[in-house]
Design brief:
The structure is a single chain. With 181 residues, this protein is an alpha+beta fold. It has 2 domains: 38 residues, Single Sheet (Ubiquitin Ligase Nedd4, Chain: W), CATH 2.20.70; 130 residues, Nucleoside Triphosphate Pyrophosphohydrolase (Alpha-Beta Complex). The longest helix has 14 residues.
């Protein structure tokens, strides 16, 4: 997963057209849009579309569930369960699937918490407020630890991404506000 700051396992530079194999060059198509990759040979426009990430935030006994990442980027930092939406999969279903894979918990989505995107990041993060309906909390795919935190104990300085901070603040404000006072 790429962070909101654009960090990944290294920049991917597309140099050749997927249609004809010609060279791609950066070119302005419209004045108000960013430069696009355009094939010098066949004029194919290679759009670098964003990736959609689906996640959930929920509490068990008024304690927020977070996972310590076991993969880069942000290995060792805390996040809510989430991951990329597969082509042909609904964002809703991806949020449920990723939560089960990463936390061993089955959840029911309550409502859309927010949609988060940041300049220079290829990700659009869709986060749902959820409630646990089954399973037992334990670290799963891509996580090395699963833990619950009282709102006052959330490790803000150890969170993985800006979207983690922003969505947690929204969740606490909307769902756990009385416990924060």
């Amino acid at each position: 997963m790429t962070s909101e700051k654009g960090h990944s396992h290294g920049p991917i530079e597309y140099r050749f057209c997927p249609r004809c194999g010609g060279n791609l060059e950066r070119r302005k198509i419209k004045a108000i849009e960013p430069e696009r990759l355009v094939c010098e040979k066949c004029s194919f426009i290679f759009y670098l579309d964003p990736k959609v990430v689906a996640g959930t935030i929920f509490a068990i006994e008024k304690r927020v569930v977070l996972l310590r990442r076991g993969v880069e980027p942000a290995m060792g930092r805390w996040v809510f369960p989430g991951g990329y939406v597969d082509r042909g999969e609904s964002v809703w279903d991806a949020a449920i699937r990723e939560t089960e894979e990463e936390s061993n918990l089955n959840v029911r989505l309550r409502s859309l918490l927010g949609v988060y995107s940041y300049p220079r990041s290829p990700n659009v993060i869709v986060v749902y407020a959820a409630e646990v309906v089954g399973g037992e909390l334990k670290a799963g795919d891509e996580s090395v630890e699963a833990k619950t935190f009282a709102p006052s104990q959330i490790p803000w300085e150890e969170l993985a991404f800006q979207s983690t901070r922003d969505a947690l603040k929204d969740f606490l404000r909307l769902y756990l506000q009385p416990e924060m006072e």
